[in-house]
Amino acid sequence: MDSVFLNKAAAAVLLSIATAWICSAVGSTVVPITAPAKPAFSVPGTENVPIAPYMAHADADHGEELAHQICSSCHALVSAASDGVGPNLAGVAGRPRASITGYAYSSALAGQKAHVWSDQALSDWLTSPARFAPGTRMSLVGISSPAQRADIIAYLHTLAE
After folding, report:
1. Domain annotation covers residue 39
2. Do 56 and 128 fall into the same domain?
3. Which of 23, 25, 31, 105 would give a disulfide with 98, using CB separation of 3.0 to 4.6 Å?
């Protein structure tokens, strides 16, 4: 290979990159990125519903079974236990969000330190963690049944720090 060929190849690569960048800049100027004012559709079971009526009939024993099935693979459910992949859930009900020292929360939750984990907030979180805090690292898709969420929240109330 001679230097003329290498110069032509380098020029082709640089011009391709410059052309792609210019096309991207012009495209984003001409077609602005906008979100619709109202979603086109909603997946059933992912709407945030008031949890208070379900909490009146919540079963903490059933919530314990559900929490051990769903939550215990990533979270500790015992006071003074070390954090797992997720933070320890002992005392989470009523605790400020992202408040366990030493646990590296995602920026999605770290920005919510001024808020408290109320029953409604816990329910909204369990409905869809990704929608509640976009960018969260929690991989749970969500729990669609409000009765099951209420049972889990009732169980979380029994866990003391």
Report:
1. no
2. yes
3. 105
∠ CA 122-124-130, nearest 5°, is: 105
Q: What is the pLDDT of residues 65-92, one digit of tens each?
A: 999 999 988 998 888 778 788 898 999 9
Residue-wise pLDDT for 100-155, tens only, equals 888 889 898 888 889 999 999 999 999 989 889 988 888 898 998 999 999 999 99
CA dihedral 44, 46, 52, 57 (to 10 degrees): 60
Tokens matching residue 14: 């640089």
Query: Quick one: CA dihedral 132, 135, 137, 142, positive or negative?
Result: positive
Alpha carbons 18 and 11: distance in angstroms, whole number = 10
Name residue, tokens 């003329």.
4
Q: State the residue for tokens 């889990």.
A: 152
CA distance 29 to 22: 11
Measured in degrees and rounded to the nearest 5, phi and psi for residue 155 equal: -65, -40
CATH of the domain at 143: 1.10.760.10
